[in-house]
Specification:
The structure is a homodimer of 235-residue chains. With 235 residues, the first copy, chain A, is of the alpha+beta class. Chain A is 27% helix and 35% strand. Chain A has helices at residues 7-20, 32-39, 43-55, 84-90, 109-115, 161-167, 187-193; strands at residues 59-62, 66-69, 74-76, 95-105, 123-132, 135-144, 175-184, 200-210, 213-223, 227-234. In chain A, helix 1 (7-20) crosses helix 3 (43-55) and helix 2 packs across helix 3. Chain A is elongated. The termini of chain A are far apart. Chain A binds chain B through residues 44, 52, 55-57, 73, 79-81, 162, 166, 172-184, 198, 200, 202, 224-225, 227-235, and chain B through 44, 52, 55-57, 73, 79-81, 162, 166, 172-184, 198, 200, 202, 224-225, 227-235. Strand 7 of chain A pairs antiparallel with strand 10 (227-234) of chain B, so a sheet runs across the interface. The first copy, chain A, binds a DNA duplex (19 and 19 nucleotides) through helix 3.
Amino acid sequence: MTPLSTYHAVAARLQAEIRSGELAPGSKLPSERQLCERLGVSRVNARDAMHYLEGQGLIYRLNRRGWYVAPSVFIYDPTRSHSIRDEAQAHGRHLHTELLSARQETPPQAVVSLLQLAPREAVAAISRRRAVDGRWVLLELCYFRNDAFPRLLEEDLTGSLTALARQRYGYQHRELVVRIASSPLSEQQAQHLHVRDGSPALRLEREVLVDGRCVAVEREYWLHDAIEMQLRGHT
Amino acid sequence: MTPLSTYHAVAARLQAEIRSGELAPGSKLPSERQLCERLGVSRVNARDAMHYLEGQGLIYRLNRRGWYVAPSVFIYDPTRSHSIRDEAQAHGRHLHTELLSARQETPPQAVVSLLQLAPREAVAAISRRRAVDGRWVLLELCYFRNDAFPRLLEEDLTGSLTALARQRYGYQHRELVVRIASSPLSEQQAQHLHVRDGSPALRLEREVLVDGRCVAVEREYWLHDAIEMQLRGHT
DNA sequence: CAGTGGTCTAGACCACTAC
DNA sequence: TAGTGGTCTAGACCACTGC
């Protein structure tokens, strides 16, 4: 095989194999050392190609496990007009939710401010991770004021929390403030999704207001290549 | 100076200097080779530290020019409730706009579909770049149907296009469909912002509907570490 | 335990920027 | 032209995963 002397060439070759379907979405790429040998390049070169394709959203890695072909993005309305599970079904994709923890705790300082909590006041804190078609792509960290959501932790927390708020607690009309930014994952967050510390993610923060008062804060971290947000507005 | 043998240590040291204010926002970091020598590490190690901090949004690079300390993010409402210039002023930041091109052209296929154009129908295409506090952070590519925006290219295109639509063309009520995703910059896009091909960006696509008909498509590419989007919704 | 990616060294040359 | 980051080689050892 003729050596491909630049990482762009290596990337282009892999890209062609992905687009042609030779490498199917979700399948594992050859190991870095195999690629070096097969393409006649150094390992740094091969790795640079991988990082480039990762940036393009064409491949992703599971920490120390290998590189995989990325599936198509998941389209999602961050203002929660529809349930995320319904959205997944509508696009023919499988959504899996796992509860990581649910307990009383004092949240991070930024959340304390938003919820206007007393200094050491605790809230119901729920963290979950979600997989689309078998890949962990979303980490959720939600904080609920106890006075607005009494005995929340005794409920079933594996389904839609939005539906729970509406049906169990009767919050029909909610105002939202949504913030979206690029954000790297912390070590702990990354571990839950099986990716590297610092992996790029989209961070979505939802401030839930009922009668002008903030009763809950929800934070979502989506792997950057897994999601497209779509919403409606007007002027 | 004691050698810092891992890139995490190198990154931590730089991070401390940035947080302490020794390295001020916008200022240039020492060159990679200077850092290698000063800290007693190899250049790969130093570069890995830079890439790590870049991912954290703490520093950014101008292509082949050097590394700089990143300023704080710019907060912005993508549904355009307010003019971006007003938002900038409200946060005490300086916004500069440069018109890159304004001409009739046939847009990319995806835009043709959204605007429901005839096969080779042209639209008014406007591209601009914008700087916040002197750093180019935003590239805009806008496409306007000629029948909805006649003689648009003869107007002043350096100000708010939203205001122009409202005042000159009388579009008071507009529905928007907004899509937000992570996206790497193409070579050409990257050049306009003086960054590397493939740099991570947030892509914002705005579909402007008047009476249920799509009359304009606006695409924005923001450098990933420069922006936080904030919007309001309700259920 | 074998295989993977993650980290690291000590060099080298190239393309481009700023002056 | 000097200095920058961008690319590349040919190795090495480590930490972790999966069997």
